[in-house]
Amino acid sequence: MKLFKIFSLFMLLALAVNVSAQKKYVMVIHGGAGTILKKNMTPEKEATYVATLTKALQAGYAEIKAGKSSLDAVEATIHVLENDPHFNAGKGAVFTHDGRNELDAAIMDGKTLMAGAVAGVTTVKNPISAARAVMEKSEHVMMVGSGADLFAKDAGLEIVDPKYFWTKERWDGLQEAIKEDSTKAVLDLGSKKSGLLGIKNHDYKFGTVGCVALDQAGNLASGTSTGGMTNKKYGRVGDAPIIGAGTYCNNETAGISCTGWGEFYIRNVVAKTISDLMEYKGLSVAEASKMALDKVGKMGGDGGLIALDKKGNVAMPFNTEGMYRGTITADGKIEVSIYK
Amino acid sequence: MKLFKIFSLFMLLALAVNVSAQKKYVMVIHGGAGTILKKNMTPEKEATYVATLTKALQAGYAEIKAGKSSLDAVEATIHVLENDPHFNAGKGAVFTHDGRNELDAAIMDGKTLMAGAVAGVTTVKNPISAARAVMEKSEHVMMVGSGADLFAKDAGLEIVDPKYFWTKERWDGLQEAIKEDSTKAVLDLGSKKSGLLGIKNHDYKFGTVGCVALDQAGNLASGTSTGGMTNKKYGRVGDAPIIGAGTYCNNETAGISCTGWGEFYIRNVVAKTISDLMEYKGLSVAEASKMALDKVGKMGGDGGLIALDKKGNVAMPFNTEGMYRGTITADGKIEVSIYK
Fold this sequence. Notes:
Two copies of one chain form a homodimer. Chain A is an alpha+beta fold. Chain A has a single domain (about 25-325), classed as (Glycosyl)asparaginase (Glutamine Phosphoribosylpyrophosphate, subunit 1, domain 1), CATH 3.60.20. Helix content of chain A is about 40%, strand content about 20%. Chain A is built from nine helices and 13 strands. Chain A has helices at about 1-20, 45-65, 70-85, 125-135, 145-155, 170-185, 260-265, 270-280, 285-300; strands at about 25-35, 105-110, 115-120, 140-145, 210-215, 220-225, 235, 245-250, 255-260, 305-310, 315, 320-330, 335-340. The interface between A and B is large, with 53 and 53 residues. Strand 7 of chain A pairs antiparallel with strand 4 of chain B.
């Protein structure tokens, strides 16, 4: 009995040390998951990615430090990533099959469970702000297409000519995808496997940016923004603007933003699954995130996600070669990674 | 000890009697929840609703009896409701602010977790079939706007002139909503409460049709179809086409279709929450459905939902005055209800 007491004391002590040593994260971001290999990267390109991810974290952290809300932090952070042509969101959005840029975004407030999302906008400079406007300036949660563009304009957001989103790299990417597609895909409704209407270009699907933030008041917020899938047709919408799939946030559990093969994230309702695994099964944010991503993997999907709980615990699992990602702690320490 | 044994035996017996007495449902449908009061209904109108709900159940039941899949049953059932002008889906779709009919639908296969959804289509006679085509004839889950219309055409579905969806009742409804709205709503971004861009016409939001079916192979499928919200602006999309929110299906738990104030269903990811409460917390389909709807109610939202689990247990909770609903058992017994 005495031995047991000593052992218990020791365990408690170990736990206390562990907790105090644990870092408290206040933000986590991603810039997309996918086939990101070191061998395909130049030191200059790598430095550019690291610099933008760092700048994005700093922008959000400044908001948190100034006592602003986690929503402000998420919006400021995602603006940096949307305005950088290297990420598939905002300025760097990929092209649809028709040579257009159709952007999607969502944001959610963990305190109130308010949410906003837009899909298929073509003239909003910063889609994450359009999503926030839908949340705060309308009674709705989701708006799509030209209606969403009109709403953003009426809400006073910065509207740009669709040409703003034209970048040489993405245009070349579309031409490449079309070329590859015309070789690979067969538009034949009769046959079973190749008979799918749509385009098989899975390597182009992983660019998305996202952020989860925890403010001084202890409130979580998360947001996701994307240019979708290169060469996408038929007004395809992925998981990013779907509340529960690519984006979800709840103070009681965690804030989540996903990136990857969107269809699998929608079918698995990944972000809400993580929250429910925490709420109903008592899993940690790391365990829940891993389990949800494993479901995606088992089905044949891939990608990654970021999650942050109210205590500042972070999870950043991915089952691809790499994921642009970064964190910042309460005391301002930044960590940025790209590969496994 | 002996007493306890006798008691246990008695309990087991009671349970066995209860199980054998329990009905096995193979289909459940809804035709929308809302302010449906007996005093506003004529006997003729009531009879029309009951007749169509009965016809819809019979159409799906015929598929199941013929050994077809639950997906076939859901599609056949929803066709009947979409083709009837009394329900806010397909032919009876309500009008947007601009005098258009924009339709949304989703379908999900509980066996494979495959899913399909369309939002904002204007030329597809039966949006539930467009959702199914997205699921089966593309690699995508969701398509929106004119892209989705084009896809439906390419997939060989019946395309109609948008005029097909014009009905006098819905047109009058729009005029009424616009009149009411111009009195009530103030489009003023400056003020807080009345300053929302969008329109407050909550009484017009509840028309949606849905179905969950269980086939002879033991597979579940669920589907939802809607014309959205009368007088809606800005390309608003509700919960019906959002997998996890208004529609979800999983053989391991249940098939679910929701109807109600869509924004609250999206924010609560209602359909997936029900599935997760069953999977992770071990609740019954009735308990899980009630708990999920209570979350909506606590937030200020209202509506209803239908759910059916693999064993044929059904749940049809709603927190509105009424919900058009019906069930059919394995041996063909139909029950249809409207009020509380």
